[in-house]
Amino acid sequence: MPHCIVEYSATLGSRLSPSELMQNVYASALKSGLFEGPDIKTRALAYDNCLTGAEPADFIHVTLRILSGRTDAQKQHLTSTVLTGLTDLNLTQVSLTVEVDDIHRHSYAKQLG
User: In terms of domain of life, where is this protein from (predicted)?
Assistant: First the structure.
């Protein structure tokens, strides 16, 4: 844990590869000190069609799905650390957002194959 789901506008592909973006989010989640490296799962989804209001606009949105039980302060530290990592990419005219989504611990199931 966590599951880091990175959603972004496909038009960013000329400025940033999906691999670079995922590595940035992975490194930031690790830097938070809340997780061990092997436990961080990162995936990215590019969107060809997206609007902000009525206008096309570039964005990166990261959802950090974590098991419930972390404090609000820990969650805020995590989102702040990941947002700082995204900001360090020095992308211009890109909306950057990060959120934590709690996974209910007792209803989460996992199987290693």
Answer: Bacteria
